[in-house]
Task: structure prediction
Amino acid sequence: MPSPQEELLEIAKRRLYGNYRPAPVVFVRGQGCELFDANDQRYLDLCAGVAVCSVGHAHPALVKTIAEQAGRLMHVSNYFYNDQAIRLADELCRRTGFAQAFLCNSGTEANEALLKLARRHFYGLGQTGRARVIAFDNAFHGRSLGAVSMTGTPKYREGFGVPGNVTHVPYGDVEAVKKAMGPDVAAVIAEPIQGEGGVFPAPAGFFASLRALCDEHGALFLIDEVQTGIGRTGRFLALEKDGVRPDAIALAKGLGGGFPVGAMLTTEKVANALPPGTHGSTFGGNPLACATALSVLRIVDDEKLVEGARTKGAALLRMLDELVREFPNACEAARGEGLLVGLLLREGFVARDVLPLIQREGVLLIAAGDRVIRFAPPLVVTEAQLAEGVAALRRVVAALDAARRGAA
Ligand SMILES: *Cc1c(COP(=O)(O)O)cnc(C)c1O
Result:
Protein backbone atom coordinates (compact mmCIF):
# COMPACT_ATOMS: atom_id res chain seq x y z
CA MET A 1 0.00 0.00 0.00
CA PRO A 2 1.39 3.42 -0.89
CA SER A 3 1.75 5.81 2.05
CA PRO A 4 -0.40 8.99 2.11
CA GLN A 5 2.67 10.88 0.98
CA GLU A 6 3.42 8.55 -1.91
CA GLU A 7 -0.17 8.88 -3.10
CA LEU A 8 0.07 12.67 -3.14
CA LEU A 9 3.48 12.62 -4.85
CA GLU A 10 2.04 10.43 -7.60
CA ILE A 11 -0.67 13.02 -8.36
CA ALA A 12 1.82 15.89 -8.01
CA LYS A 13 4.05 14.40 -10.70
CA ARG A 14 1.17 14.30 -13.15
CA ARG A 15 -0.71 17.47 -12.26
CA LEU A 16 1.62 20.17 -11.03
CA TYR A 17 3.38 22.08 -13.79
CA GLY A 18 7.02 21.11 -13.98
CA ASN A 19 8.68 24.50 -13.50
CA TYR A 20 9.96 23.54 -10.03
CA ARG A 21 12.12 20.70 -8.77
CA PRO A 22 10.68 20.11 -5.28
CA ALA A 23 12.07 17.59 -2.82
CA PRO A 24 9.80 14.52 -2.55
CA VAL A 25 8.18 15.67 0.70
CA VAL A 26 4.56 16.83 1.08
CA PHE A 27 4.00 19.10 4.07
CA VAL A 28 0.59 19.18 5.68
CA ARG A 29 1.07 21.18 8.89
CA GLY A 30 3.49 23.25 10.91
CA GLN A 31 4.02 24.59 14.41
CA GLY A 32 6.67 27.14 15.29
CA CYS A 33 9.87 25.97 13.58
CA GLU A 34 8.60 22.46 12.96
CA LEU A 35 6.93 21.04 9.84
CA PHE A 36 5.18 17.70 9.50
CA ASP A 37 4.80 15.77 6.23
CA ALA A 38 1.88 13.67 5.05
CA ASN A 39 3.37 10.64 6.83
CA ASP A 40 3.61 12.73 10.02
CA GLN A 41 7.41 12.85 9.95
CA ARG A 42 8.84 15.90 11.73
CA TYR A 43 11.33 18.34 10.19
CA LEU A 44 13.12 21.30 11.74
CA ASP A 45 12.44 24.26 9.45
CA LEU A 46 15.46 26.56 9.25
CA CYS A 47 14.54 28.19 5.94
CA ALA A 48 11.03 29.46 6.75
CA GLY A 49 9.83 29.10 3.17
CA VAL A 50 12.69 31.27 1.86
CA ALA A 51 12.77 33.82 4.68
CA VAL A 52 8.98 34.15 4.65
CA CYS A 53 7.52 32.58 7.81
CA SER A 54 9.09 35.18 10.08
CA VAL A 55 6.98 34.37 13.14
CA GLY A 56 7.04 30.60 12.56
CA HIS A 57 4.19 28.34 11.52
CA ALA A 58 0.71 28.67 13.00
CA HIS A 59 1.61 31.46 15.43
CA PRO A 60 -1.51 31.69 17.66
CA ALA A 61 -1.78 35.51 17.49
CA LEU A 62 -1.40 35.50 13.70
CA VAL A 63 -3.91 32.67 13.27
CA LYS A 64 -6.40 34.55 15.45
CA THR A 65 -5.98 37.79 13.48
CA ILE A 66 -6.47 36.02 10.15
CA ALA A 67 -9.58 34.19 11.34
CA GLU A 68 -11.10 37.37 12.81
CA GLN A 69 -10.32 39.51 9.77
CA ALA A 70 -11.64 36.83 7.39
CA GLY A 71 -14.88 36.93 9.38
CA ARG A 72 -15.01 40.74 9.19
CA LEU A 73 -13.80 41.84 5.73
CA MET A 74 -11.54 40.26 3.12
CA HIS A 75 -11.64 42.41 0.02
CA VAL A 76 -13.14 45.66 -1.27
CA SER A 77 -10.89 46.69 -4.25
CA ASN A 78 -8.91 49.88 -4.58
CA TYR A 79 -11.98 51.89 -5.63
CA PHE A 80 -12.49 52.33 -1.89
CA TYR A 81 -10.37 52.66 1.22
CA ASN A 82 -10.20 49.98 3.88
CA ASP A 83 -9.11 50.46 7.48
CA GLN A 84 -6.39 47.77 7.50
CA ALA A 85 -4.54 49.13 4.44
CA ILE A 86 -4.52 52.63 5.91
CA ARG A 87 -3.17 51.32 9.22
CA LEU A 88 -0.51 49.15 7.55
CA ALA A 89 0.73 51.99 5.32
CA ASP A 90 0.93 54.27 8.35
CA GLU A 91 2.70 51.64 10.46
CA LEU A 92 5.30 50.83 7.78
CA CYS A 93 6.04 54.50 7.15
CA ARG A 94 6.31 55.33 10.86
CA ARG A 95 8.79 52.51 11.37
CA THR A 96 11.00 53.29 8.40
CA GLY A 97 10.76 57.04 7.84
CA PHE A 98 9.32 56.65 4.35
CA ALA A 99 6.41 58.87 3.34
CA GLN A 100 4.02 56.55 1.52
CA ALA A 101 3.31 52.89 0.78
CA PHE A 102 2.03 51.11 -2.33
CA LEU A 103 0.66 47.73 -1.24
CA CYS A 104 0.89 44.61 -3.37
CA ASN A 105 1.13 40.82 -3.13
CA SER A 106 4.73 39.73 -3.64
CA GLY A 107 8.36 40.74 -3.91
CA THR A 108 8.16 40.62 -7.68
CA GLU A 109 5.26 43.07 -7.65
CA ALA A 110 7.07 45.39 -5.24
CA ASN A 111 10.12 45.44 -7.52
CA GLU A 112 8.00 45.81 -10.63
CA ALA A 113 6.50 48.87 -8.92
CA LEU A 114 10.00 50.24 -8.20
CA LEU A 115 10.95 49.88 -11.86
CA LYS A 116 7.76 51.54 -13.10
CA LEU A 117 8.11 54.25 -10.44
CA ALA A 118 11.63 55.09 -11.60
CA ARG A 119 10.81 55.30 -15.30
CA ARG A 120 7.48 57.08 -14.80
CA HIS A 121 9.11 59.59 -12.42
CA PHE A 122 11.39 60.93 -15.15
CA TYR A 123 8.68 60.64 -17.81
CA GLY A 124 6.53 62.84 -15.61
CA LEU A 125 9.38 65.36 -15.40
CA GLY A 126 9.66 65.38 -19.21
CA GLN A 127 12.99 63.49 -19.11
CA THR A 128 11.85 60.72 -21.44
CA GLY A 129 15.43 59.74 -22.32
CA ARG A 130 16.06 58.66 -18.72
CA ALA A 131 14.92 55.05 -18.52
CA ARG A 132 18.01 52.89 -18.12
CA VAL A 133 18.47 51.01 -14.84
CA ILE A 134 21.73 49.81 -13.33
CA ALA A 135 21.40 46.48 -11.50
CA PHE A 136 23.90 43.88 -10.33
CA ASP A 137 25.22 40.51 -11.46
CA ASN A 138 23.61 37.69 -9.43
CA ALA A 139 20.91 40.05 -8.16
CA PHE A 140 17.45 38.58 -7.65
CA HIS A 141 14.45 40.88 -8.01
CA GLY A 142 11.74 38.49 -9.17
CA ARG A 143 10.39 36.70 -12.22
CA SER A 144 7.94 38.98 -14.03
CA LEU A 145 9.36 40.39 -17.27
CA GLY A 146 10.11 43.73 -15.63
CA ALA A 147 11.55 42.32 -12.41
CA VAL A 148 13.51 39.65 -14.23
CA SER A 149 15.05 42.32 -16.47
CA MET A 150 16.79 43.59 -13.31
CA THR A 151 17.58 40.09 -12.04
CA GLY A 152 21.24 39.33 -12.67
CA THR A 153 21.21 35.62 -13.48
CA PRO A 154 21.22 35.13 -17.29
CA LYS A 155 19.52 31.71 -16.97
CA TYR A 156 16.41 33.41 -15.52
CA ARG A 157 16.22 35.84 -18.47
CA GLU A 158 17.10 33.64 -21.44
CA GLY A 159 14.39 32.81 -23.94
CA PHE A 160 11.69 35.13 -22.60
CA GLY A 161 12.19 38.20 -24.78
CA VAL A 162 12.97 40.17 -21.62
CA PRO A 163 12.69 43.94 -22.16
CA GLY A 164 16.07 45.65 -22.02
CA ASN A 165 17.58 48.92 -20.89
CA VAL A 166 19.13 47.40 -17.78
CA THR A 167 22.91 47.36 -17.32
CA HIS A 168 24.30 44.69 -14.97
CA VAL A 169 27.60 45.31 -13.21
CA PRO A 170 29.49 43.35 -10.52
CA TYR A 171 27.98 43.69 -7.03
CA GLY A 172 30.08 45.75 -4.68
CA ASP A 173 32.08 47.36 -7.50
CA VAL A 174 31.68 51.15 -7.24
CA GLU A 175 34.02 51.79 -10.18
CA ALA A 176 31.86 49.61 -12.43
CA VAL A 177 28.76 51.59 -11.41
CA LYS A 178 30.61 54.84 -12.08
CA LYS A 179 31.49 53.62 -15.56
CA ALA A 180 27.94 52.47 -16.28
CA MET A 181 26.43 55.79 -15.07
CA GLY A 182 25.11 58.33 -17.52
CA PRO A 183 22.44 60.98 -18.12
CA ASP A 184 20.08 58.22 -19.34
CA VAL A 185 20.13 56.34 -16.01
CA ALA A 186 16.82 56.49 -14.12
CA ALA A 187 17.85 54.35 -11.17
CA VAL A 188 20.31 52.06 -9.49
CA ILE A 189 18.75 49.07 -7.71
CA ALA A 190 20.52 46.81 -5.21
CA GLU A 191 19.89 44.28 -2.44
CA PRO A 192 21.52 45.15 0.93
CA ILE A 193 22.83 41.56 0.98
CA GLN A 194 22.41 39.41 -2.12
CA GLY A 195 20.13 36.64 -0.84
CA GLU A 196 19.45 34.28 -3.74
CA GLY A 197 22.83 35.20 -5.23
CA GLY A 198 24.65 33.46 -2.34
CA VAL A 199 24.13 35.41 0.92
CA PHE A 200 26.65 37.90 -0.38
CA PRO A 201 27.16 41.09 1.65
CA ALA A 202 28.38 44.30 0.03
CA PRO A 203 31.71 45.87 1.05
CA ALA A 204 31.53 48.61 3.70
CA GLY A 205 30.68 52.00 2.25
CA PHE A 206 29.20 50.55 -0.95
CA PHE A 207 25.70 51.93 -0.42
CA ALA A 208 26.92 55.37 0.63
CA SER A 209 28.91 55.47 -2.62
CA LEU A 210 25.85 54.39 -4.63
CA ARG A 211 23.74 57.09 -2.95
CA ALA A 212 26.38 59.72 -3.76
CA LEU A 213 26.68 58.57 -7.38
CA CYS A 214 22.90 58.63 -7.84
CA ASP A 215 22.71 62.15 -6.40
CA GLU A 216 25.56 63.33 -8.58
CA HIS A 217 23.87 62.02 -11.74
CA GLY A 218 20.27 62.75 -10.76
CA ALA A 219 19.24 59.08 -10.70
CA LEU A 220 17.01 57.39 -8.15
CA PHE A 221 18.51 54.99 -5.62
CA LEU A 222 16.30 51.92 -5.05
CA ILE A 223 16.77 49.12 -2.53
CA ASP A 224 15.25 45.66 -2.63
CA GLU A 225 14.66 44.63 1.02
CA VAL A 226 12.33 41.77 0.07
CA GLN A 227 14.54 39.13 1.72
CA THR A 228 16.44 41.31 4.22
CA GLY A 229 13.57 43.43 5.58
CA ILE A 230 11.32 43.04 8.66
CA GLY A 231 14.10 42.23 11.10
CA ARG A 232 15.79 39.42 9.20
CA THR A 233 19.32 40.87 9.53
CA GLY A 234 18.93 42.11 13.10
CA ARG A 235 17.65 45.52 12.04
CA PHE A 236 14.12 46.31 10.87
CA LEU A 237 15.64 47.20 7.48
CA ALA A 238 19.09 45.89 6.59
CA LEU A 239 20.18 49.21 5.10
CA GLU A 240 19.80 50.95 8.48
CA LYS A 241 23.28 49.62 9.17
CA ASP A 242 24.73 51.84 6.45
CA GLY A 243 22.85 54.98 7.45
CA VAL A 244 21.89 55.57 3.82
CA ARG A 245 18.43 56.68 2.62
CA PRO A 246 17.13 55.20 -0.64
CA ASP A 247 14.37 56.95 -2.62
CA ALA A 248 12.16 53.86 -2.44
CA ILE A 249 12.34 50.24 -1.27
CA ALA A 250 10.63 46.91 -1.92
CA LEU A 251 9.34 44.68 0.91
CA ALA A 252 7.57 41.30 0.90
CA LYS A 253 8.59 37.82 2.16
CA GLY A 254 8.71 38.20 5.97
CA LEU A 255 6.14 41.00 5.98
CA GLY A 256 3.18 38.62 5.71
CA GLY A 257 4.66 35.79 7.76
CA GLY A 258 3.50 33.36 5.05
CA PHE A 259 0.53 35.32 3.72
CA PRO A 260 1.22 36.92 0.31
CA VAL A 261 1.80 40.62 0.86
CA GLY A 262 4.34 43.09 -0.49
CA ALA A 263 4.93 46.80 -0.35
CA MET A 264 6.83 49.57 -2.05
CA LEU A 265 7.75 52.37 0.35
CA THR A 266 8.50 55.75 -1.18
CA THR A 267 9.86 59.19 -0.26
CA GLU A 268 8.17 62.55 -0.95
CA LYS A 269 10.51 63.05 -3.89
CA VAL A 270 8.72 60.40 -5.98
CA ALA A 271 5.19 61.07 -4.67
CA ASN A 272 3.94 62.14 -8.12
CA ALA A 273 5.63 59.46 -10.22
CA LEU A 274 2.60 57.14 -10.46
CA PRO A 275 -0.56 59.30 -10.64
CA PRO A 276 -4.04 57.69 -10.57
CA GLY A 277 -4.56 55.24 -13.39
CA THR A 278 -0.88 54.49 -14.05
CA HIS A 279 -0.40 51.48 -11.76
CA GLY A 280 -2.47 49.18 -9.58
CA SER A 281 -3.35 45.72 -8.33
CA THR A 282 -6.70 44.04 -7.74
CA PHE A 283 -5.61 42.18 -4.60
CA GLY A 284 -3.00 44.68 -3.42
CA GLY A 285 -3.85 46.25 -0.07
CA ASN A 286 -6.74 43.91 0.67
CA PRO A 287 -7.81 44.03 4.33
CA LEU A 288 -7.00 40.38 5.04
CA ALA A 289 -3.40 40.70 3.83
CA CYS A 290 -2.95 44.03 5.60
CA ALA A 291 -4.37 42.80 8.92
CA THR A 292 -2.01 39.83 8.65
CA ALA A 293 1.02 42.06 8.08
CA LEU A 294 -0.01 44.31 10.97
CA SER A 295 -0.23 41.24 13.19
CA VAL A 296 3.26 40.11 12.08
CA LEU A 297 4.65 43.56 12.97
CA ARG A 298 3.01 43.40 16.42
CA ILE A 299 4.49 39.96 17.06
CA VAL A 300 7.92 41.15 15.87
CA ASP A 301 7.66 43.93 18.52
CA ASP A 302 6.13 41.88 21.33
CA GLU A 303 8.67 39.09 21.03
CA LYS A 304 11.61 41.45 20.32
CA LEU A 305 12.41 39.50 17.17
CA VAL A 306 14.60 42.17 15.57
CA GLU A 307 17.01 42.17 18.52
CA GLY A 308 16.66 38.39 18.70
CA ALA A 309 17.72 38.03 15.07
CA ARG A 310 20.92 39.88 15.92
CA THR A 311 21.91 37.81 18.97
CA LYS A 312 20.74 34.43 17.65
CA GLY A 313 22.30 35.20 14.26
CA ALA A 314 25.63 35.94 15.93
CA ALA A 315 25.43 32.61 17.76
CA LEU A 316 24.63 30.79 14.49
CA LEU A 317 27.55 32.45 12.71
CA ARG A 318 29.88 31.36 15.54
CA MET A 319 28.66 27.76 15.21
CA LEU A 320 29.19 27.82 11.43
CA ASP A 321 32.63 29.42 11.80
CA GLU A 322 33.51 26.43 13.94
CA LEU A 323 32.36 24.06 11.16
CA VAL A 324 34.59 25.93 8.71
CA ARG A 325 37.58 25.51 11.02
CA GLU A 326 36.80 21.88 11.68
CA PHE A 327 36.12 20.81 8.09
CA PRO A 328 38.26 22.98 5.81
CA ASN A 329 38.10 20.46 2.96
CA ALA A 330 34.35 20.90 2.64
CA CYS A 331 33.72 24.44 3.93
CA GLU A 332 35.26 27.68 2.76
CA ALA A 333 33.52 30.36 4.84
CA ALA A 334 30.45 31.36 6.82
CA ARG A 335 28.90 34.76 6.21
CA GLY A 336 25.76 36.78 6.63
CA GLU A 337 23.96 39.14 8.93
CA GLY A 338 21.43 38.34 11.65
CA LEU A 339 19.34 35.32 10.68
CA LEU A 340 20.33 35.40 7.02
CA VAL A 341 23.48 33.31 7.06
CA GLY A 342 25.24 31.10 4.53
CA LEU A 343 27.85 28.36 4.66
CA LEU A 344 30.02 28.56 1.53
CA LEU A 345 31.16 25.12 0.40
CA ARG A 346 34.48 24.51 -1.32
CA GLU A 347 34.72 24.69 -5.10
CA GLY A 348 33.35 21.52 -6.70
CA PHE A 349 30.50 21.03 -4.23
CA VAL A 350 26.96 21.87 -5.36
CA ALA A 351 24.78 23.17 -2.52
CA ARG A 352 21.56 21.92 -4.15
CA ASP A 353 22.94 18.36 -4.17
CA VAL A 354 23.87 18.54 -0.48
CA LEU A 355 20.38 19.58 0.67
CA PRO A 356 18.82 16.07 0.41
CA LEU A 357 21.53 14.76 2.79
CA ILE A 358 20.58 17.44 5.33
CA GLN A 359 16.88 16.67 4.82
CA ARG A 360 17.58 13.06 5.63
CA GLU A 361 18.74 14.34 9.02
CA GLY A 362 15.32 15.96 9.49
CA VAL A 363 16.46 19.54 8.87
CA LEU A 364 15.29 21.90 6.13
CA LEU A 365 17.80 24.35 4.67
CA ILE A 366 17.97 25.92 1.22
CA ALA A 367 20.68 26.75 -1.28
CA ALA A 368 21.77 30.22 -2.37
CA GLY A 369 23.83 30.57 -5.51
CA ASP A 370 25.75 27.42 -6.49
CA ARG A 371 27.78 26.70 -3.37
CA VAL A 372 26.03 28.23 -0.38
CA ILE A 373 23.85 26.41 2.18
CA ARG A 374 21.47 29.10 3.44
CA PHE A 375 19.93 29.51 6.88
CA ALA A 376 16.90 31.83 6.93
CA PRO A 377 14.96 30.40 9.89
CA PRO A 378 11.78 31.81 11.40
CA LEU A 379 12.83 34.75 13.60
CA VAL A 380 11.21 32.91 16.53
CA VAL A 381 13.81 30.12 16.28
CA THR A 382 15.62 29.24 19.52
CA GLU A 383 19.38 28.87 19.92
CA ALA A 384 18.76 25.21 20.79
CA GLN A 385 16.98 24.71 17.46
CA LEU A 386 19.82 26.43 15.61
CA ALA A 387 22.27 24.13 17.41
CA GLU A 388 20.15 21.11 16.40
CA GLY A 389 20.32 22.26 12.78
CA VAL A 390 24.05 22.87 12.87
CA ALA A 391 24.60 19.44 14.46
CA ALA A 392 22.75 17.82 11.53
CA LEU A 393 24.71 19.91 9.06
CA ARG A 394 27.91 18.97 10.88
CA ARG A 395 27.26 15.25 10.27
CA VAL A 396 26.73 15.90 6.56
CA VAL A 397 29.71 18.22 6.21
CA ALA A 398 31.95 15.78 8.11
CA ALA A 399 31.15 13.09 5.54
CA LEU A 400 31.80 15.47 2.63
CA ASP A 401 35.07 16.55 4.21
CA ALA A 402 36.19 12.96 4.73
CA ALA A 403 35.28 12.04 1.13
CA ARG A 404 37.20 15.03 -0.24
CA ARG A 405 40.22 14.13 1.92
CA GLY A 406 40.02 10.54 0.71
CA ALA A 407 39.92 11.68 -2.90
CA ALA A 408 42.91 14.02 -2.50
C1 LIG B 1 12.30 36.48 -3.16
C2 LIG B 1 12.81 37.77 -3.65
C3 LIG B 1 12.11 38.50 -4.64
C4 LIG B 1 10.87 37.97 -5.30
O1 LIG B 1 9.82 37.87 -4.43
P1 LIG B 1 8.50 37.01 -4.82
O2 LIG B 1 7.62 37.18 -3.64
O3 LIG B 1 8.96 35.62 -5.08
O4 LIG B 1 7.92 37.61 -6.03
C5 LIG B 1 12.61 39.73 -5.00
N1 LIG B 1 13.73 40.23 -4.45
C6 LIG B 1 14.42 39.56 -3.50
C7 LIG B 1 15.65 40.18 -2.91
C8 LIG B 1 14.00 38.31 -3.09
O5 LIG B 1 14.71 37.63 -2.19
